[in-house]
Design a protein that fits this description.
Arc Repressor Mutant, subunit A, 98 residues, single chain, three-stranded antiparallel sheet, alpha+beta, flat, 67% helix
Length: 98
Amino acid sequence: NISQKQLAEALEIELASLMRTLKLLEEQSLVTRRCCEHDKRARIVSLTDEGKELLIQMEERILQVRRKLLSEINDQELKKLGLILEQIAHNALDSLGE
């Protein structure tokens, strides 16, 4: 359970965008929204049982795809890739600061 405001902040999106998405998810019975007991202005978002099941299926599928994508890459190569990506991220942040 999380408030709409906290969820928007965690996802780094505008609250209005989140509200539209939540409306669609609610119509599909994947989430519910209810008033917060402590702050009647706030709305609490919860996954329904259907939403939880879909999340589990998505996580399993993501793991399958990840395993397949990385199946031909050994640990040393993955470590090297990680270092390269860190350097790219560092360079990108440096260039934004200029």
